[in-house]
Amino acid sequence: MKNTPELRTWLDDLKLEHPVVIAGPCSAETEEQVLGIAHQLKDTDVSYLRAGIWKPRTRPGNFEGVGAIGLNWLKKAKEETGLKIATEVANKAHVDLALEADVDMLWIGARSTVSPFIVQEIADALKGTDKIVLIKNPVNPDLSLWLGGIERLAKSNIKNLGVIHRGFSSYEKSKYRNIPEWQIAIELQNRFPDLPLICDPSHITGKRDMIFDVSQTALDLNYDGLMIETHTDPDHAWSDAAQQVTPQTLVQIMKDLKIRKESDPEGEYNTQLNNLRAQIDVIDNNLIDLLGKRMKVADNIGELKKDRNVAVLQTKRWNEILGKMIWEGEQQGLSEEFVLRIFKAIHQESINHQEKILKG
């Protein structure tokens, strides 16, 4: 897949002075609900009204969407407000119905992206379309799978492509609903800088009070837009209530976000510098998170040593770690002195944790 200007055609055609905003309810519930939200969003920064018509659920028995009737509500909202409309498709039947309803933007969800068979079916159904087609990252952190989905769509001669970063599932407990793993989206962006990249902070966070911070990080990393779930009565939404915001809150978020682009001659430099600094911020946060996890393991070792009356310092084990890390560091271009300083500090912190446990 080549980096061609065509990839950004739909983004450029919008002629926006701000990142593209896709907003609306997680699920279309009633005609009144969809129209009410649309009218509250029509004079804001929102360009696309989104709503889930078919909702893939993890467990059977949960609300799985109103089905095709919801497309009529989206069409009516488009007629009354002028907002373009967007929804998720998961098979050929969904695609056919969405195209018949003249939906402007379609996206493939994270659960569908994991299956090349599903993506290929959708790509075949959309072959040659001028509709905007976005593909969310797969549920698991697999860049190749994500890229494969993009390539299947591109081979079906779909010009108006883009991707949505919605975070990745993990068995580990986290403050996020889906861990961002920003480095994966950054790598995709580095490979295909002309591919529009949208952040979905609603699914990354799972909590409405975290949406602003994740949105700001995305913009600092030079994302092209945001998809934010918006509902007039979020607490009583039929799906994903905790992560939806009111239209009023969305408007305030848009006002408070800092768009780090410059119009002066130094603008390109400042944009690149801010992007690189944002990448460092992401990596630093990951480092702190990993160090915290390492110390929790050290605590478990301390408990085990206490039970068996074993000394904290195990010199042979420590020398093995140092030797291995010095070698690994060299492979990454890190000096021996630097690696020694870092791991001596980590080792001392581990000892402090274990001694605290032994002293009870």
The number of helical segments is 14
Q: How helical, in percent, are the residues? A: 40-55%
Low-pLDDT regions? none
Characterize the overall form.
elongated
The profile of the biggest β sheet is: 8 strands, parallel, barrel
- The CATH architecture category of the largest domain equals Alpha-Beta Barrel
Mean pLDDT: 91
The CATH homologous superfamily of the largest domain corresponds to Aldolase class I
User: Which structural class matches the secondary elements?
Assistant: alpha/beta
Please explain how this structure is put together:
By secondary structure, the chain is α/β, with parallel strands linked by helices. The chain has 2 domains: 5-259, TIM Barrel; 271-358, Chorismate mutase (Chorismate Mutase Domain, subunit A), CATH 1.20.59. It has 14 helices and 8 strands. It has helices spanning 9-14, 31-41, 69-81, 92-100, 110-113, 116-125, 143-155, 182-191, 201-205, 211-220, 247-256, 267-308, 315-331, 336-358; strands at 20-24, 46-50, 84-89, 105-108, 132-136, 161-165, 197-199, 225-229. An 8-stranded parallel β-barrel has the order 1-2-3-4-5-6-7-8, surrounded by 5 helices. The longest helix is centred in the last third of the chain and has 42 residues, at 267-308. It is elongated. The model has no long low-confidence stretch (mean pLDDT 91).
